[in-house]
């Protein structure tokens, strides 16, 4: 799904992290972690607590890109979103493992027709919006319809839309489009029928995306909907001061009997949306607020605080786990057109130095591919990148010899995160050795992915991806990041490098319609991805590990494999420090 943001689908989590690896004893399961640098086991804090009540204080360095489920491709919105909106199915997190798709608003994972072109879902009985009005099939349909208004919702997730038969539908606001969408039928108040262009074996994962969060048409305020999305979950928005704070309180219309996936133990969640990352790090390590946690990646930890992770008190309060998120450097293939030139730049990069900017082995490991061996259908990927991350400057010079290549390029980075600027400084040095000057250009963090998706995309930019709703599937990484557009004729919405090889695009477009197991289809997606990566549209960097410190009264804290931070749907607050 998602860009990693501060989210998600990054969907792109922000954190100023420049740590060094350090050792320590292996923890007992569930005890908190001061794990050695090469240990990536999942560790939970306070597992099994059932305390009801209290407030969770979520410290964040920046505001959410959006709270509108119809305009979100970010993991942070998905994380907080599970508190106030529900979808037909849900990607249920488990630390250290890909999420499991489970029913949410729907009674089951859907019923598919024999030809694979129709999926039918039945809503549970008794579902209500926060105002007490019933949630109907038409509300689910309208939530999906809004995401087709790409002129309004520039970050709307598109994987579900690409699967549906839409006949060129442009969203509910386009002239003459009211009631015009044929991709979904609602024969009665509780039945939602999806009409597909091609069979899609993993369709239940698609309807876990935020597209299927119900939206009442009468309450739709377009871009202002982000200020108060109408709740269908256990919490609702009481107060939202953009850029400053957000408070969620209980939604009395939510019925726990319809929702086995969310514990909803705290009474409230309070979000501080402009806390400096150095302050977040200091407060959590010192336990100055025992009800606090953060959604910033790697727990918002700072370089000067690294050693404190090994103290007994902090270790007991540290949730950790290898997550499904990977960071890469994207090359703009419209400005760096020659794949040989892109390869030369790729092999010249000192990925080992970048790894140190991420904190070294304790906070992630170098990877040779955007997909990983944990995903279904993975096949070995081929690359000339040094597995230890060392640059190959002489090889890069040989590749560039006699070729016409740009002598000046621009690296864009999110301005809220020091390590991304530091990465740029390292890249400057690497590219200078092969005759390329690199300009560093700061991009406001709140607009980062919008910029990458628009006409001002720099030549080189960092991005991250957290697998997708069903991040155990190879397709959920390959198709969004290197796949073609909905019609197969250009590059796809989340394809930041703008990579489009006509032959590979045709094969991927056809593969979207094949039936088969995730394992079998995954091998085909992975093989096509390997072919595309020989053109070096991007450079794999770091498979992330998150170690997130929580306050001493926080329980049931786990690092979501997909979210890359503490899973808000599981946490609780006790009256005693522990």
Automatic annotation (TrEMBL):
PANTHER family: ABC TRANSPORTER SUBSTRATE-BINDING PROTEIN, PERIPLASMIC BINDING COMPONENT OF ABC TRANSPORTER
Leader sequence residues: 1-23
Organism domain of life: Bacteria
Keywords in alphabetical order: Signal
Keyword Zinc-finger: no
Pfam family, one: SBP_bac_5
Domain Solute-binding protein family residues, every copy: 100-470
Gene Ontology BP annotations: peptide transport
Any GO CC annotation of this UniProt entry: periplasmic space
MF annotations from Gene Ontology: peptide transmembrane transporter activity
Protein name, per record: ABC transporter substrate-binding protein
């Amino acid at each position: 799904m998602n860009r990693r943001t501060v989210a998600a689908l990054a969907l792109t989590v922000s954190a100023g992290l420049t740590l060094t690896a350090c050792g320590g004893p292996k923890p007992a399961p569930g005890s908190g972690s001061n794990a050695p640098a090469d240990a990536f086991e999942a560790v939970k804090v306070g597992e099994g607590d059932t305390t009801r009540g209290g407030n969770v204080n979520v410290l964040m360095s920046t505001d959410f890109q959006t709270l509108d489920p119809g305009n979100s491709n970010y993991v942070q919105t998905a994380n907080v979103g599970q508190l106030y909106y529900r979808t037909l199915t849900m990607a249920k997190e488990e630390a250290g493992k890909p999420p499991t798709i489970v029913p949410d608003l729907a009674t089951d994972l859907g019923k598919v027709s024999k030809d694979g072109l129709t999926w039918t879902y039945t809503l549970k009985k008794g579902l209500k919006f926060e105002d007490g009005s019933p949630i109907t099939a038409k509300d689910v349909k309208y939530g999906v319809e809004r995401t087709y208004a790409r002129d309004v919702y520039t970050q709307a997730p598109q994987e579900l839309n690409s699967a549906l038969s839409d006949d060129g539908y442009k969203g509910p606001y386009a002239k003459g489009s009211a009631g015009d969408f044929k991709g979904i039928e609602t024969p009665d108040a509780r039945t939602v029928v999806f009409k597909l262009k091609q069979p899609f074996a993993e369709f239940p994962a698609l309807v876990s995306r935020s597209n299927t969060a119900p939206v009442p048409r009468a309450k739709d305020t377009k871009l202002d909907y982000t200020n108060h999305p109408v709740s269908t979950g256990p919490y609702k928005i009481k107060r939202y001061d953009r850029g400053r704070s957000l408070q969620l309180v209980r939604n009395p219309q939510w019925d726990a009997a319809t929702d086995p996936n969310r514990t909803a133990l705290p009474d409230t969640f309070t979000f501080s949306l402009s806390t400096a990352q150095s302050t977040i790090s200091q407060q959590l390590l010192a336990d100055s607020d025992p009800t606090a946690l953060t959604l910033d990646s790697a727990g918002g930890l700072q370089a000067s605080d690294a050693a404190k992770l090994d103290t007994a008190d902090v270790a007991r309060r540290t949730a950790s786990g290898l997550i499904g998120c990977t960071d890469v450097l994207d090359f703009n293939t419209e400005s760096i057109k020659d794949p040989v030139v892109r390869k030369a730049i790729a092999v010249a990069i000192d990925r080992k130095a970048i790894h140190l900017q991420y904190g070294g082995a304790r906070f992630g490991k170098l990877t040779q591919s955007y997909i990983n061996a944990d995903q279904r259908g993975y096949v070995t990927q081929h690359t000339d990148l040094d597995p230890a991350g060392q640059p190959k400057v002489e090889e890069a010079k040989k590749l560039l010899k006699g070729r016409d290549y740009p002598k000046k390029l621009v690296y864009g980075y999110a301005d809220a995160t020091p390590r991304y600027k530091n990465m740029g400084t390292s890249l400057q040095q690497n590219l200078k050795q092969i005759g390329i000057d690199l300009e560093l250009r700061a991009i406001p963090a709140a607009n980062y992915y919008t910029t990458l998706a628009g006409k001002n995309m720099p030549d080189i930019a960092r991005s991250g991806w957290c697998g997708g709703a069903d991040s155990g599937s190879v397709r959920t990484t390959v198709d969004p990041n290197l796949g073609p557009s909905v019609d197969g004729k250009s590059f796809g919405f989340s394809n930041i490098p703008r990579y489009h090889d006509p032959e590979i695009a045709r094969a991927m477009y056809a593969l979207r319609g094949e039936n088969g197991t995730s394992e079998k289809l995954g091998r085909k997606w992975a093989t096509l991805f390997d072919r595309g990566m020989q053109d070096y549209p991007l450079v794999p960097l770091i498979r992330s590990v998150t170690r997130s410190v929580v306050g001493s009264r926080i329980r049931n804290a786990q690092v979501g494999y997909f979210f890359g931070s503490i899973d808000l749907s599981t946490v609780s607050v006790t009256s005693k420090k522990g």
